[in-house]
């Protein structure tokens, strides 16, 4: 209540004493607004629908106001909050409905593929058993007696089917990692091959055994054994095509993030473009630092400030408007080029100075908090076992002593949107439980980590779009370029083939390394 009253009194006093000056300043600012800024604000009208953040430690507006704040901003600043309104256009509604339709189509395609594979697998495992049981059911009295060899084949069929079942479960029954836009060609070919193979065996069985009611039961069992052997060979072929073929590196790909230019190199084998894109995304979440759009706003604001200082005068009339303005702006930018690099240098130096100072304050605050924890642990050991403090309670007890320094550091480095209050408390309690040092606790905040380090629901892009001139089912080739797009940025992938390396051998004679050292003794005469 006191803070609200101070805010109202400050705001009312300010409006009483400087109302006329504010009005004049606003009118002058409106007169100096250029048509270019109006068009720019109109063209940037867009709406993005995202999930709400889970209690960010600091607001996003804090990073934009950081440049003009001193070290004691918390004690001397009064904040006025307000509300904002957003609207959704018809284009956004159409785009959302299209995304929902695409997701429904992907789910149907995925479940349809799983259903077809499950039905075909069940048919494969039941076929050898049916080959053996049907003669026993239909013409049992006419069959020849099954001898010792025939009974031994039963054991062979049973163990081979068990091996085939375990191998099929290990190779095919895996949780899918992603929904690919096209079918996996080799897997589809294997399914077609298995279907044709089982259909051929059933056709031969129906014509030569069921119609003629063959009485040689040992031959029928041997026919079922041959089917199981062939299925085992098909399973070996599936291992070669699906797993072993892609292990040998054949291509080197360069992945570049379009916004900040961060890049990584990876080696891949014979893969299709869509499977290579899946490998790129798996490595992206592990190797690339988390995407932080707040770090890009400084350069954009600096460029906008330089362009705002340029004034263009049209002296050639309305017919030469566009070319005259462009030439004038280029000339003015060239004249200001010598002074802009000095401004950039001092801005970066000042930012690095503030980061180092607030980092030092954070390190000292965390070390003092952990020292307090050790003192509390020593005191708790002297108490009864029932009075021991929980790690969560200990984290909540020492967090206020380091919260202010951590807030300022995260705001200066523009990381406040990635760390909520709850995530910091969980990490602190985890460090206390495992007896970790202050340096281990600060590692997450001093060095920006990969995307996997942060909250999955907030920072993972669930929808990626693969853009490629080649068919996504075709294999990688030298010079292929494809793009992976998400909502905020894109990954540009360039494929290069590993060159053929020719090694030659040069023989060195072992005797060439030998030498003789001759010493000549000198004697005085």
TrEMBL record:
Subcellular localization(s) per the UniProt record: Cell membrane
Entry GO CC: plasma membrane
Biased composition regions of type Basic residues, renumbered to the chain: 19-35
Coiled-coil zones: none
Comp. bias intervals (Basic and acidic residues): 36-45
Stored Pfam families: Strabismus (PF06638)
Superkingdom of origin organism: Eukaryota
Annotated Polar residues bias: 74-86
The keyword Transmembrane belongs to this UniProt entry's keyword annotation: yes
Main location: membrane
Bilayer disposition of the protein: Multi-pass membrane protein
Annotated region described as Disordered, given as residue ranges: 1-86
Transmembrane segments: 111-133, 153-172, 184-204, 224-244
Keyword Translocase among UniProt keywords: no
Similarity section: Belongs to the Vang family.
PANTHER family: VANG-LIKE PROTEIN (PTHR20886)
Name recorded for this polypeptide: VANG1 protein
Origin species: Rhodinocichla rosea
């Amino acid at each position: 209540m006191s803070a609200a009253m101070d805010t109202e009194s400050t705001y009312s006093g300010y409006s009483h004493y400087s109302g006329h000056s504010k009005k004049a300043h606003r009118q002058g600012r409106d007169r100096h607004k250029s048509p270019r800024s109006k068009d720019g604000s109109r063209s940037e009208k867009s709406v993005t629908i995202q999930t709400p953040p889970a209690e960010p430690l600091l607001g996003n507006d804090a990073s934009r106001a950081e440049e003009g704040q001193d070290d004691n901003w918390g004690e001397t600043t009064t904040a006025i909050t307000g509300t904002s309104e957003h609207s959704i256009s018809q284009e956004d509604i159409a785009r959302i409905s299209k995304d929902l339709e695409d997701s429904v189509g992907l789910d149907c395609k995925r479940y349809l593929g799983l259903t077809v594979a499950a039905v075909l697998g069940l048919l494969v495992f039941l076929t050898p058993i049916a080959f053996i049981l049907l003669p026993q059911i239909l013409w049992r009295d006419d069959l020849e007696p099954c001898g010792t060899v025939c009974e031994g084949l039963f054991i062979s069929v049973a163990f081979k089917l068990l091996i085939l079942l375990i191998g099929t479960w290990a190779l095919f029954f895996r949780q899918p990692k992603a929904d690919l836009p096209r079918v996996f060609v080799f897997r589809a070919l294997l399914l077609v091959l298995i279907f044709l193979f089982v259909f051929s065996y059933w056709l031969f069985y129906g014509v030569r055994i069921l119609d003629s009611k063959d009485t040689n039961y040992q031959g029928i069992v041997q026919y079922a054994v041959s089917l199981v052997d062939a299925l085992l060979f098909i399973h070996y072929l599936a291992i070669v095509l699906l797993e072993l073929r892609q292990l040998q590196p054949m291509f080197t790909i360069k992945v570049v993030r379009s916004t900040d230019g961060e890049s990584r190199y990876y080696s891949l084998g014979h893969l299709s473009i869509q499977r290579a894109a899946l490998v790129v995304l798996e490595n992206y979440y592990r190797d690339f630092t988390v995407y932080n759009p707040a770090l890009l706003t400084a350069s954009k604001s600096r460029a906008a400030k330089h362009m705002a200082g340029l004034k263009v005068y049209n002296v050639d009339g309305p017919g030469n408007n566009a070319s005259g303005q462009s030439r004038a702006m280029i000339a003015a930018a060239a004249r200001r080029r010598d002074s802009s690099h000095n401004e950039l240098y001092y801005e970066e130096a000042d930012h690095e100075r503030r980061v180092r100072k607030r980092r030092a304050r954070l390190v000292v605050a965390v070390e003092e908090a952990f020292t307090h924890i050790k003192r509390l642990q020593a005191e708790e050991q002297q108490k009864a076992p029932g009075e021991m403090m929980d790690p969560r309670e200990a984290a909540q007890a020492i967090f206020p002593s380091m919260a202010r320094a951590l807030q300022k550091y995260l705001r200066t480095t523009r990381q406040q949107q990635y760390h909520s209050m709850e995530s910091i408390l969980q990490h602190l309690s985890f460090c206390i439980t495992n007896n970790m040092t202050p340096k281990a606790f600060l590692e997450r905040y001093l060095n920006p980590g990969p995307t996997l380090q942060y909250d999955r629901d907030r920072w993972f892009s669930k929808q990626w779009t693969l853009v490629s001139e080649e068919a996504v089912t075709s294999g990688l080739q030298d010079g292929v370029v494809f793009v992976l797009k998400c909502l905020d940025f894109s990954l540009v992938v360039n494929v290069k083939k590993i060159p053929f390396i020719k090694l030659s051998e040069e023989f060195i004679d072992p005797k060439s390394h030998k030498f003789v050292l001759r010493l000549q003794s000198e004697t005085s005469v």
